[in-house]
Amino acid sequence: MKAMKWSKDKLATAICLGVVLSSSVSTVAVAQPQGAVTTATSGGVSDDALLITPRVSVGEVKAGMTEDEVIAALGQPDRQQGDVLIYDAQFGFSVVCNRQKIVRAVHCGGPVSFKCRTKEGIGVGSSKDELIKAYGQPADWAKTPAQGNQPAQDLLDYTPLGLNFTLHDSKVYSIVVNLRKPQ
User: Fold this and answer.
1) What are the structural domain ranges in the chain?
2) What letter does residue 92 receive in the DSSP assignment?
3) What is the pTM of this model?
């Protein structure tokens, strides 16, 4: 079980970092669950959902935070892998920092993440149809084939919003949020 968990964590981190780096992100914010989202979707919305405001914030923490500020706001992460602070148990997300220890992305995803939602109600569990209805067609759309235990995935990139969605079986499985302003 530990090996499976470790393998899943490594894959999730690799996917997150790949999407983050390919999107040329610079900063992102993560917050404590204080502002609940009340917009409903077919996937339902948790009362303690963190509001994703594309290019601005996730919850009450704003862009440009340092790693130390994230830890001061959220407490010690469950674990840390390089520049990634992993807060799976309480928040269901990971925070990716750059070499200067500035937060650049948050990865909400996997089977435990249900706490990050946009004002439109899009979050983990939302359908592809709901996503496209909320944001229109993505700037880029790729499909990856199934590999081993990993199902086929749709990767939808909404670069102008700073949002990247990974879908399994036409449902949002993970979201990468960045706050780098378009040039």
Assistant:
1) 2-124+174-178
2) S
3) 0.71
